[in-house]
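Sequence in, structure out. First:
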Amino acid sequence: MSTKLEDRPFTRQVWALTHRFTYERIAQRVGHVRSTTWLNNLVNRELTTKRGWAASPPEPHTWARFAEAFGVTADDVRHMIAHEWLQVKQGNHSERVTALAGRLDKLSEEDAGLISQLVNRLQPSD
């Protein structure tokens, strides 16, 4: 199991929060659904140890709190957890595409067209 942050999308989100907040403040932001010790172990220890998980995956009832703290949807958090703890990726797309897919599908046709125009302008097809 990899310990690189590229392979740990949930941990990467928590790690990013540590640049702005203490572990105590992060625990507060997620409604204390996980302890400061759990957050610290997640970021600073190997994903697994000889005795099992260093930090077990968050339970489904916590996903909405983490989603709010990360600025994503609970479904995005579910995918991050599946990727990190179970090595299950959604499709063959990058994490960036996966994170945007659900939100793009909820846009109106007009707004989706604007996004398409913007992407075509920034990255013209070959």
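Second:
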Amino acid sequence: MQYISQPDYPWQVLREKFSGKYEKAVIPAPGGNDWFHAKIVIKYPHVTVYVNGNKEPSLNVDQLNKRTSGKIGLWVGNNSDGDFCQPADHCGKSGEIKIMITRIKICCIKSEYEARMAVEYGASAVGLVASMPSGPGPISDEFIRQIAQTVPPPVATFLLDKRNIGKRNN
């Protein structure tokens, strides 16, 4: 979950200057193909977001602008699909909006440029290749780390690495 305030505070600026303050993980995370309910409460200057009826907010921040009226935007990712369901569609109570996201994974990213292009064209996740027996060739762990740090939320990164074959993260 992330708060941004365009044009002065895009995600890149907030991540660099206020790491972890304006973006938080949704716990428990909704399933990748599931609808989820988001309740956004704006009481100037506070913005609070609750997901799936949780009593604890997923995000609780103060606005970075002085706007007290206008519109808000819901962003589902760079060029990625998202389905919004309104009460007329019989998907929830009055005033609710639900979102469903189509996920696209792009593998074998070898540069920051390729990562940017993947995100720009709608990737939900990008794969980076370390030590593997086949494929386009591995890149160093340090370069993988460098590329991964440039990938914006909510885009995920994953590592393909023969050192972890047969191991599971539980």
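Remark: The chain has three helices and eight strands.
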